[in-house]
Amino acid sequence: MKGILAEIASMVKDFGSAPTFAEMPRKTLADKGIAGPTAAHTIEEVHTPLNLAYLTFTTGSSAFQNIVGITFAELPARVKASFTVLERAGLKAGDKVLVTYPPLVNVFSGEAFKKYGLQWEFLVRSSRDAFLAALYEFQPKAVVGESSFIRASLEDAKHMGVADELPKDIVLLTAGTPLDLELLPIAQEVLNAEVHDLYGCQEFGWLCMDGVPVRDDVELVKLPDNGGQDMYELVVGGLPMGDSFPVSESGHVCNCNGKVITYRRERTYPEYEVIVKATTLTSTVTLGRVARSILRIKGRVVKISPDVVTGAEHTVLELIPDYITAGKQQGIIIEGSAKTRFFDDLVQAQLDYQQKAKADPTWTKRN
Protein backbone atom coordinates (compact mmCIF):
# COMPACT_ATOMS: atom_id res chain seq x y z
CA MET A 1 0.00 0.00 0.00
CA LYS A 2 1.35 3.40 -0.99
CA GLY A 3 1.99 5.96 1.69
CA ILE A 4 0.46 9.41 1.63
CA LEU A 5 3.66 11.09 0.44
CA ALA A 6 3.99 8.59 -2.39
CA GLU A 7 0.46 9.46 -3.51
CA ILE A 8 1.23 13.17 -3.28
CA ALA A 9 4.39 12.66 -5.33
CA SER A 10 2.34 10.95 -8.01
CA MET A 11 -0.43 13.55 -7.97
CA VAL A 12 1.74 16.67 -8.24
CA LYS A 13 3.18 15.38 -11.49
CA ASP A 14 -0.27 15.47 -13.07
CA PHE A 15 -1.90 18.55 -11.56
CA GLY A 16 -1.38 21.31 -9.02
CA SER A 17 -1.97 24.98 -8.28
CA ALA A 18 1.49 26.01 -9.50
CA PRO A 19 2.81 25.37 -13.02
CA THR A 20 5.56 22.99 -14.03
CA PHE A 21 8.46 24.45 -16.03
CA ALA A 22 6.86 23.21 -19.25
CA GLU A 23 3.54 24.87 -18.32
CA MET A 24 5.00 28.31 -17.56
CA PRO A 25 3.89 31.05 -19.99
CA ARG A 26 6.63 32.18 -22.35
CA LYS A 27 7.41 35.52 -23.98
CA THR A 28 9.76 34.84 -26.85
CA LEU A 29 11.53 37.41 -29.00
CA ALA A 30 8.92 36.63 -31.65
CA ASP A 31 6.10 37.30 -29.18
CA LYS A 32 7.66 40.71 -28.45
CA GLY A 33 8.11 41.37 -32.17
CA ILE A 34 11.91 41.69 -32.00
CA ALA A 35 13.05 38.31 -33.34
CA GLY A 36 15.91 39.66 -35.42
CA PRO A 37 19.71 39.51 -35.27
CA THR A 38 22.00 42.04 -33.63
CA ALA A 39 25.77 42.02 -33.23
CA ALA A 40 25.54 43.49 -29.73
CA HIS A 41 23.57 40.82 -27.88
CA THR A 42 23.31 37.20 -26.95
CA ILE A 43 19.96 35.49 -26.48
CA GLU A 44 19.30 34.61 -22.85
CA GLU A 45 16.15 33.21 -21.29
CA VAL A 46 15.04 34.92 -18.07
CA HIS A 47 12.20 34.56 -15.59
CA THR A 48 10.13 37.70 -16.17
CA PRO A 49 7.71 38.86 -13.42
CA LEU A 50 4.08 38.51 -14.45
CA ASN A 51 3.36 42.12 -13.48
CA LEU A 52 5.60 43.39 -16.32
CA ALA A 53 4.44 43.50 -19.94
CA TYR A 54 8.02 42.89 -21.08
CA LEU A 55 11.68 43.55 -20.36
CA THR A 56 14.11 45.45 -22.54
CA PHE A 57 17.46 47.25 -22.18
CA THR A 58 18.76 50.76 -22.74
CA THR A 59 21.07 51.12 -25.74
CA GLY A 60 24.12 51.72 -23.56
CA SER A 61 25.78 54.16 -25.97
CA SER A 62 27.95 55.62 -23.20
CA ALA A 63 27.77 53.01 -20.44
CA PHE A 64 26.58 49.51 -19.66
CA GLN A 65 23.04 48.74 -20.76
CA ASN A 66 20.47 49.00 -17.98
CA ILE A 67 17.50 46.68 -17.71
CA VAL A 68 14.11 48.35 -18.25
CA GLY A 69 10.72 47.08 -17.13
CA ILE A 70 7.58 48.01 -19.06
CA THR A 71 4.38 47.79 -17.02
CA PHE A 72 0.96 46.96 -18.42
CA ALA A 73 -0.45 50.24 -17.07
CA GLU A 74 1.81 52.39 -19.24
CA LEU A 75 1.20 50.47 -22.48
CA PRO A 76 -1.95 52.35 -23.63
CA ALA A 77 -0.20 55.75 -23.62
CA ARG A 78 2.92 54.21 -25.17
CA VAL A 79 0.86 52.63 -27.97
CA LYS A 80 -1.02 55.90 -28.52
CA ALA A 81 2.27 57.81 -28.92
CA SER A 82 3.49 55.17 -31.38
CA PHE A 83 0.27 55.49 -33.38
CA THR A 84 0.84 59.25 -33.54
CA VAL A 85 4.34 58.64 -34.96
CA LEU A 86 3.09 56.18 -37.56
CA GLU A 87 0.16 58.38 -38.58
CA ARG A 88 2.37 61.48 -38.94
CA ALA A 89 4.71 59.42 -41.11
CA GLY A 90 1.77 58.57 -43.39
CA LEU A 91 1.89 54.82 -42.77
CA LYS A 92 -1.23 52.70 -42.98
CA ALA A 93 -2.30 49.16 -42.09
CA GLY A 94 -0.60 46.57 -44.29
CA ASP A 95 2.51 48.66 -44.96
CA LYS A 96 5.86 46.89 -44.80
CA VAL A 97 8.49 48.24 -42.38
CA LEU A 98 12.16 47.27 -42.28
CA VAL A 99 13.69 47.53 -38.79
CA THR A 100 17.49 47.63 -38.80
CA TYR A 101 17.92 47.16 -35.03
CA PRO A 102 15.30 44.83 -33.49
CA PRO A 103 15.21 46.38 -29.95
CA LEU A 104 13.84 49.59 -31.49
CA VAL A 105 10.51 47.75 -31.80
CA ASN A 106 10.39 47.72 -27.99
CA VAL A 107 10.29 51.54 -27.96
CA PHE A 108 7.10 51.40 -30.02
CA SER A 109 6.15 48.05 -28.45
CA GLY A 110 5.37 45.07 -30.62
CA GLU A 111 1.76 45.51 -29.52
CA ALA A 112 1.63 48.91 -31.24
CA PHE A 113 2.91 47.47 -34.52
CA LYS A 114 0.44 44.59 -34.32
CA LYS A 115 -2.56 46.81 -33.51
CA TYR A 116 -1.61 49.25 -36.27
CA GLY A 117 -1.51 46.38 -38.76
CA LEU A 118 2.09 46.72 -39.96
CA GLN A 119 4.24 43.99 -41.45
CA TRP A 120 7.79 44.27 -40.20
CA GLU A 121 10.99 42.41 -40.91
CA PHE A 122 14.64 42.55 -39.86
CA LEU A 123 17.99 42.27 -41.56
CA VAL A 124 19.50 38.83 -42.12
CA ARG A 125 22.68 40.18 -40.50
CA SER A 126 23.56 43.41 -38.70
CA SER A 127 25.56 44.91 -41.56
CA ARG A 128 25.31 47.58 -44.23
CA ASP A 129 25.34 45.13 -47.14
CA ALA A 130 22.50 43.19 -45.48
CA PHE A 131 20.57 46.46 -45.17
CA LEU A 132 20.94 47.23 -48.89
CA ALA A 133 19.92 43.66 -49.75
CA ALA A 134 16.84 43.96 -47.53
CA LEU A 135 15.84 47.25 -49.16
CA TYR A 136 16.07 45.57 -52.57
CA GLU A 137 14.28 42.34 -51.64
CA PHE A 138 11.71 43.49 -49.09
CA GLN A 139 10.77 46.79 -50.81
CA PRO A 140 9.55 48.41 -47.56
CA LYS A 141 7.34 51.46 -47.28
CA ALA A 142 9.35 52.61 -44.23
CA VAL A 143 12.65 51.96 -42.47
CA VAL A 144 13.28 52.29 -38.73
CA GLY A 145 16.96 52.67 -37.90
CA GLU A 146 19.92 54.70 -36.70
CA SER A 147 20.64 57.64 -38.99
CA SER A 148 24.42 57.30 -39.38
CA PHE A 149 24.07 53.60 -40.24
CA ILE A 150 21.50 54.41 -42.93
CA ARG A 151 23.61 57.29 -44.28
CA ALA A 152 26.74 55.12 -44.53
CA SER A 153 24.75 52.33 -46.23
CA LEU A 154 23.36 54.71 -48.85
CA GLU A 155 26.86 56.06 -49.50
CA ASP A 156 27.94 52.44 -50.09
CA ALA A 157 25.11 52.02 -52.59
CA LYS A 158 26.32 55.05 -54.54
CA HIS A 159 29.94 53.86 -54.53
CA MET A 160 28.90 50.39 -55.74
CA GLY A 161 26.67 51.83 -58.45
CA VAL A 162 23.51 50.11 -57.22
CA ALA A 163 21.57 53.15 -55.95
CA ASP A 164 19.18 53.04 -58.92
CA GLU A 165 18.07 49.51 -57.94
CA LEU A 166 16.84 50.58 -54.50
CA PRO A 167 13.16 51.43 -53.83
CA LYS A 168 12.06 55.06 -53.99
CA ASP A 169 9.64 57.28 -52.06
CA ILE A 170 10.08 55.52 -48.73
CA VAL A 171 9.91 56.89 -45.18
CA LEU A 172 12.97 56.85 -42.92
CA LEU A 173 12.19 56.90 -39.18
CA THR A 174 15.58 57.58 -37.64
CA ALA A 175 16.03 56.84 -33.95
CA GLY A 176 18.40 55.79 -31.21
CA THR A 177 21.01 58.54 -31.61
CA PRO A 178 20.88 62.24 -32.54
CA LEU A 179 19.99 62.74 -36.19
CA ASP A 180 22.95 62.66 -38.59
CA LEU A 181 22.20 65.74 -40.69
CA GLU A 182 24.32 64.38 -43.54
CA LEU A 183 21.66 61.72 -44.06
CA LEU A 184 19.10 64.20 -45.40
CA PRO A 185 20.67 65.03 -48.80
CA ILE A 186 21.76 61.49 -49.62
CA ALA A 187 18.40 60.04 -48.54
CA GLN A 188 16.71 62.45 -50.93
CA GLU A 189 19.17 61.66 -53.73
CA VAL A 190 19.19 57.86 -53.46
CA LEU A 191 15.73 56.99 -52.14
CA ASN A 192 13.70 60.18 -52.61
CA ALA A 193 13.01 59.49 -48.94
CA GLU A 194 11.12 61.50 -46.34
CA VAL A 195 13.29 61.59 -43.18
CA HIS A 196 11.84 61.85 -39.69
CA ASP A 197 13.73 62.32 -36.43
CA LEU A 198 12.39 60.34 -33.46
CA TYR A 199 13.41 61.10 -29.89
CA GLY A 200 12.56 58.73 -27.09
CA CYS A 201 13.99 55.89 -25.05
CA GLN A 202 13.29 52.34 -23.98
CA GLU A 203 12.06 53.51 -20.56
CA PHE A 204 9.41 55.95 -21.83
CA GLY A 205 8.72 55.19 -25.48
CA TRP A 206 8.60 57.86 -28.18
CA LEU A 207 8.36 61.43 -26.92
CA CYS A 208 9.01 63.73 -29.91
CA MET A 209 8.94 63.44 -33.68
CA ASP A 210 10.65 66.13 -35.75
CA GLY A 211 10.67 68.42 -32.72
CA VAL A 212 6.94 68.00 -31.97
CA PRO A 213 5.84 66.08 -28.84
CA VAL A 214 3.85 62.89 -29.44
CA ARG A 215 2.52 62.67 -25.86
CA ASP A 216 0.24 65.11 -24.07
CA ASP A 217 2.28 64.95 -20.85
CA VAL A 218 5.57 66.18 -22.36
CA GLU A 219 6.80 69.39 -20.69
CA LEU A 220 9.80 71.61 -21.44
CA VAL A 221 11.45 73.10 -18.35
CA LYS A 222 13.90 75.95 -18.91
CA LEU A 223 17.23 75.36 -17.25
CA PRO A 224 18.22 78.05 -14.73
CA ASP A 225 21.61 78.77 -16.31
CA ASN A 226 23.46 77.16 -19.19
CA GLY A 227 26.26 79.55 -20.03
CA GLY A 228 24.01 82.04 -21.75
CA GLN A 229 22.32 79.47 -24.02
CA ASP A 230 18.62 78.75 -23.50
CA MET A 231 18.23 75.03 -22.93
CA TYR A 232 15.15 73.12 -21.86
CA GLU A 233 14.87 69.88 -19.90
CA LEU A 234 12.40 67.45 -21.43
CA VAL A 235 10.01 66.06 -18.81
CA VAL A 236 7.42 63.35 -19.45
CA GLY A 237 4.58 62.81 -17.02
CA GLY A 238 6.53 64.61 -14.30
CA LEU A 239 9.75 62.61 -14.75
CA PRO A 240 12.82 64.35 -16.23
CA MET A 241 14.70 62.63 -19.04
CA GLY A 242 18.13 63.96 -18.13
CA ASP A 243 18.31 65.40 -21.66
CA SER A 244 18.07 69.07 -22.55
CA PHE A 245 17.54 70.76 -25.91
CA PRO A 246 17.45 74.21 -27.49
CA VAL A 247 14.01 75.41 -28.56
CA SER A 248 13.86 77.37 -31.80
CA GLU A 249 11.07 79.29 -33.48
CA SER A 250 12.79 78.69 -36.83
CA GLY A 251 11.87 75.03 -36.53
CA HIS A 252 13.34 71.56 -36.72
CA VAL A 253 15.24 70.60 -39.87
CA CYS A 254 12.58 67.94 -40.64
CA ASN A 255 9.56 70.06 -39.72
CA CYS A 256 9.39 73.85 -39.59
CA ASN A 257 6.67 73.55 -36.94
CA GLY A 258 8.85 71.49 -34.63
CA LYS A 259 10.39 73.66 -31.92
CA VAL A 260 12.45 71.10 -29.96
CA ILE A 261 15.82 70.68 -31.69
CA THR A 262 16.29 67.06 -30.74
CA TYR A 263 19.44 66.57 -32.83
CA ARG A 264 21.27 69.05 -30.57
CA ARG A 265 20.74 67.10 -27.38
CA GLU A 266 22.89 67.67 -24.32
CA ARG A 267 22.96 65.83 -21.01
CA THR A 268 21.32 68.00 -18.36
CA TYR A 269 23.61 69.51 -15.76
CA PRO A 270 22.77 69.77 -12.99
CA GLU A 271 20.13 67.05 -12.97
CA TYR A 272 16.71 67.46 -11.35
CA GLU A 273 15.39 65.67 -8.32
CA VAL A 274 11.70 64.72 -8.31
CA ILE A 275 9.87 65.35 -5.03
CA VAL A 276 6.31 64.06 -4.56
CA LYS A 277 4.37 66.84 -2.83
CA ALA A 278 0.87 65.36 -3.14
CA THR A 279 -0.51 61.99 -4.19
CA THR A 280 -3.89 60.44 -4.87
CA LEU A 281 -2.73 57.44 -2.84
CA THR A 282 -3.88 57.18 0.76
CA SER A 283 -0.79 55.30 1.91
CA THR A 284 2.75 56.64 2.04
CA VAL A 285 3.92 53.02 2.20
CA THR A 286 2.50 52.38 -1.28
CA LEU A 287 3.96 55.68 -2.48
CA GLY A 288 7.36 54.57 -1.23
CA ARG A 289 7.01 51.36 -3.21
CA VAL A 290 6.17 53.39 -6.31
CA ALA A 291 9.32 55.47 -5.84
CA ARG A 292 11.48 52.37 -5.49
CA SER A 293 9.86 50.75 -8.52
CA ILE A 294 10.51 53.83 -10.66
CA LEU A 295 14.18 53.74 -9.66
CA ARG A 296 14.47 50.03 -10.44
CA ILE A 297 12.66 49.84 -13.78
CA LYS A 298 13.04 53.39 -15.13
CA GLY A 299 16.29 54.55 -13.54
CA ARG A 300 14.75 57.79 -12.22
CA VAL A 301 15.15 59.01 -8.63
CA VAL A 302 11.87 60.01 -6.97
CA LYS A 303 11.78 61.25 -3.36
CA ILE A 304 8.82 61.80 -1.09
CA SER A 305 8.34 65.08 0.72
CA PRO A 306 8.20 64.72 4.54
CA ASP A 307 4.91 66.64 4.49
CA VAL A 308 3.43 64.92 1.43
CA VAL A 309 -0.35 65.26 1.10
CA THR A 310 -2.09 61.91 0.66
CA GLY A 311 -5.56 61.36 -0.77
CA ALA A 312 -5.16 64.45 -2.96
CA GLU A 313 -7.35 65.15 -5.98
CA HIS A 314 -4.34 64.88 -8.25
CA THR A 315 -0.57 64.35 -8.16
CA VAL A 316 1.77 67.26 -7.44
CA LEU A 317 5.47 66.86 -8.27
CA GLU A 318 8.28 69.31 -7.67
CA LEU A 319 11.40 69.30 -9.82
CA ILE A 320 14.42 70.67 -8.00
CA PRO A 321 17.90 71.09 -9.51
CA ASP A 322 20.29 69.12 -7.31
CA TYR A 323 22.31 72.23 -6.48
CA ILE A 324 19.31 73.67 -4.61
CA THR A 325 18.78 72.35 -1.11
CA ALA A 326 15.30 70.88 -0.89
CA GLY A 327 12.98 73.18 1.03
CA LYS A 328 15.24 76.23 0.68
CA GLN A 329 13.96 77.29 -2.71
CA GLN A 330 10.89 76.21 -4.63
CA GLY A 331 11.52 74.22 -7.78
CA ILE A 332 9.24 73.70 -10.76
CA ILE A 333 5.76 72.45 -9.89
CA ILE A 334 4.07 69.93 -12.20
CA GLU A 335 0.54 68.93 -11.27
CA GLY A 336 -2.69 67.65 -12.69
CA SER A 337 -3.74 64.35 -14.20
CA ALA A 338 -2.79 65.41 -17.73
CA LYS A 339 0.73 66.60 -16.90
CA THR A 340 1.61 63.75 -14.54
CA ARG A 341 0.19 60.94 -16.71
CA PHE A 342 3.32 58.81 -16.84
CA PHE A 343 3.94 59.00 -13.10
CA ASP A 344 0.30 58.20 -12.42
CA ASP A 345 0.45 55.19 -14.76
CA LEU A 346 3.30 53.80 -12.67
CA VAL A 347 1.24 54.43 -9.52
CA GLN A 348 -1.56 52.41 -11.12
CA ALA A 349 0.90 49.65 -11.99
CA GLN A 350 1.89 49.41 -8.32
CA LEU A 351 -1.76 49.24 -7.24
CA ASP A 352 -2.47 46.55 -9.83
CA TYR A 353 0.46 44.53 -8.57
CA GLN A 354 -0.63 44.80 -4.94
CA GLN A 355 -4.20 43.82 -5.75
CA LYS A 356 -3.30 40.91 -8.03
CA ALA A 357 0.13 39.91 -6.76
CA LYS A 358 1.40 36.62 -8.13
CA ALA A 359 2.92 34.95 -5.08
CA ASP A 360 5.14 31.86 -5.24
CA PRO A 361 4.60 29.64 -2.19
CA THR A 362 8.21 28.41 -2.37
CA TRP A 363 9.44 31.96 -1.72
CA THR A 364 7.66 33.47 1.29
CA LYS A 365 8.89 36.68 2.90
CA ARG A 366 8.24 37.37 6.56
CA ASN A 367 8.21 40.90 7.95
Report on this structure.
The chain has 367 residues and is an alpha/beta fold. The chain is built from ten helices and 17 strands. The protein has helices spanning 4-12, 29-32, 75-88, 104-108, 110-116, 128-138, 147-160, 183-191, 284-298, 341-355, and strands spanning 52-57, 67-71, 96-99, 119-122, 142-145, 171-174, 194-201, 205-209, 212-213, 218-222, 232-236, 239-245, 266-267, 272-278, 302-309, 316-321, 332-335. Helix 8 links the parallel strand 6 and strand 7. The two termini are 42 Å apart. The model has no long low-confidence stretch (mean pLDDT 92).
Descriptive labels:
four-stranded antiparallel sheet, flat, 23% strand, alpha/beta, 10 helices
SSE inventory with pairings:
Layout (H helix, E strand, L loop, with lengths): L3 H9 L16 H4 L19 E6 L9 E5 L3 H14 L7 E4 L4 H5 L1 H7 L2 E4 L5 H11 L3 E4 L1 H14 L10 E4 L8 H9 L2 E8 L3 E5 L2 E2 L4 E5 L9 E5 L2 E7 L20 E2 L4 E7 L5 H15 L3 E8 L6 E6 L10 E4 L5 H15 L12
Parallel strand pairs: 3-4, 3-5, 5-6, 6-7, 14-15
Antiparallel strand pairs: 1-2, 7-8, 8-9, 10-11, 11-12, 12-13, 14-16, 16-17
